């Protein structure tokens, strides 16, 4: 081999090893498996089920340990006590958004989910205030969800009790609620643009959950220089923002500052108010990113929960029957279920909480980051370090939920059959970065499921004991297997 080539390889290796040692030795990080130079601990992780790998590491290194995804250290929090201490007790210090390469390329530093610092605080505050103005947490939004539940039921009637895949139908309802808040209008369930929009949101979630995307998160350069399914995700993001931009332009032409119609109008008014502020974060790029975030968080997560929930009710028909008995007793057949009913329906409430616990929709949550150098327990975590929270370890804690691998509504019922709250219920994460739309999601899941079970009996095409509820992917999200069922009118 050419001596020059050998020299270059040696110098490069020494440089890379030096960088790795510098990164590895920074601060007083928690213990963890020894990383390899350059690639870190990636070979010790099962990219098809990272949450299980984290569980195994916690047995060896305790509830707080460090993994290296490539050259970057990530502090992992495993178990309720560690996650509560960080996200709730030290909420401000752990309120940063951690490294998420795909979002960094699609949203840049904008939006409400993946942004940081001043942009995040101002955008989140504005979004919460605007969503409340348009009914979140109020009776007006509940009425909107009830109306959409009726539309959903009518669409299900059109299946004529024939076998159907409920994926797209169940996505239409929550997407329409988000559309009504953002665009002031809903879509017919057969509208091609609407179905295309839902298809893109669903596809993106599936792509994000693939093992390839877990590898790309570790080695972001793959996103820039290699072919792969991530390019489809990027193209989908471009299409979605182009679609939203068209709606924004329509709103700009018809904007009445004194009469805002929806979220877009409110943002445009704020943009006008701050047009002379060179440091303002209220610009078109942030509007497009924020709406993209609201669509992704408000549609796909809820629809997946509904789809997984129906699969579990098919698997456990005795549970579905008890929910229907409670609906008949409390609501009856001649009026729509409402949120006030939930207090009188402890079993149904427990079933919904158990669905959310069992499906473990976002097993590791979204990455956090520390906003300053911080002493956490006996360790020093440098500012900007990514924090991974194993929500699975909380939702599947065997001390709080006996036999956590079993679907059991009794996890949320006391001995008298009353609903039992649990601090371990972190399906929406916790702390300052808790899901922005938690209240809306809880409302939708309750109203859609109870309305469906009020009007239909669910019929499986196979023997319930043969139904497999194991997620087909378990990366960014846990997604249920495809299935068909019949909606039999009652």
TrEMBL record:
Superkingdom is: Eukaryota
Tell me which residues bind heme: 435
Q: Which residues form the signal peptide?
A: 1-25
Its lineage reads: Eukaryota, Metazoa, Chordata, Craniata, Vertebrata
Where does this protein chiefly localize?
A: endoplasmic reticulum
Q: Could you list this entry's UniProt keywords, alphabetically sorted.
A: Endoplasmic reticulum, Heme, Iron, Membrane, Metal-binding, Microsome, Monooxygenase, Oxidoreductase, Signal
One of its GO biological process terms is: xenobiotic metabolic process
Protein name according to UniProt? unspecific monooxygenase
Gene of this entry = LOC101346446
The UniProt family comment states:
Belongs to the cytochrome P450 family.
Please give the cofactor(s) recorded in the UniProt entry for this protein: heme
């Amino acid at each position: 081999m050419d001596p020059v080539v050998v020299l270059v390889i040696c110098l490069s290796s020494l440089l890379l090893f030096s960088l790795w040692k510098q990164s590895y030795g920074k601060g007083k990080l928690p213990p963890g498996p020894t990383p390899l130079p350059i690639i870190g601990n990636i070979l010790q992780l099962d990219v098809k089920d990272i949450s299980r790998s984290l569980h195994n590491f916690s047995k060896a290194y305790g509830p707080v340990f460090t993994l290296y995804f490539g050259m970057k250290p990530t502090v992992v929090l495993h178990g309720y006590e560690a996650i509560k201490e960080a996200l709730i007790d030290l909420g401000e210090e752990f309120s940063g958004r951690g490294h998420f390469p795909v979002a960094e390329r699609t949203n840049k530093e904008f939006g409400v989910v993946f942004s940081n610092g001043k942009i995040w605080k101002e955008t989140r505050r504005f979004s919460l205030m605007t969503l409340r103005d348009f009914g979140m947490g109020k009776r007006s939004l509940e009425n909107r969800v009830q109306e959409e539940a009726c539309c959903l039921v009518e669409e299900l009637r059109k299946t004529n009790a024939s076998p159907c895949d409920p994926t797209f139908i169940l996505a239409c309802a929550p997407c329409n609620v988000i559309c009504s808040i953002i665009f002031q209008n809903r879509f017919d369930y057969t509208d091609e643009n609407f179905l295309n929009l839902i298809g893109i949101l669903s596809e993106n979630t599936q792509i994000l959950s693939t093992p390839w995307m877990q590898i790309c998160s570790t080695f972001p350069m793959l996103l820039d220089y290699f072919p792969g399914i991530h390019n489809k995700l990027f193209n989908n993001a471009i299409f979605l923002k182009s679609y939203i931009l068209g709606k924004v332009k329509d709103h700009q032409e018809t904007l009445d500052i004194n009469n805002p119609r929806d979220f877009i109008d409110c943002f445009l008014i704020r943009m006008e108010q701050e047009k002379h502020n060179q440091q303002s974060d209220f610009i078109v790029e942030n509007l497009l990113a924020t709406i993209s975030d609201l669509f992704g968080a408000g549609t796909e997560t809820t629809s997946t929960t509904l789809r997984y929930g129906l699969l579990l009710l098919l698997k456990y028909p005795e549970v579905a029957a008890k929910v229907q008995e409670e609906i008949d007793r409390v609501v009856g057949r001649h009026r729509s279920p409402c949120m006030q009913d939930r207090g009188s329906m402890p079993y149904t409430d427990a079933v919904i909480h158990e669905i959310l616990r069992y499906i473990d929709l976002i097993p590791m949550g979204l990455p956090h980051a520390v906003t300053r150098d911080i002493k956490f327990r006996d360790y020093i975590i440098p500012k900007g370090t990514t924090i991974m929270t194993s929500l699975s370890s909380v939702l599947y804690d065997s001390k709080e939920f006996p036999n956590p691998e079993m679907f059991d509504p009794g996890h949320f019922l006391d001995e008298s059959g009353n609903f039992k709250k649990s601090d371990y219920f972190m399906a929406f994460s916790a702390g300052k970065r808790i899901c922005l739309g938690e209240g809306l999601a809880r409302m939708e899941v309750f109203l859609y499921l109870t309305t469906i079970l009020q009007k239909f009996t669910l019929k499986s095409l196979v023997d319930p004991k043969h139904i497999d509820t194991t997620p087909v992917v378990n990366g960014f999200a846990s997604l249920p297997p495809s299935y068909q069922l019949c909606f039999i009118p009652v």
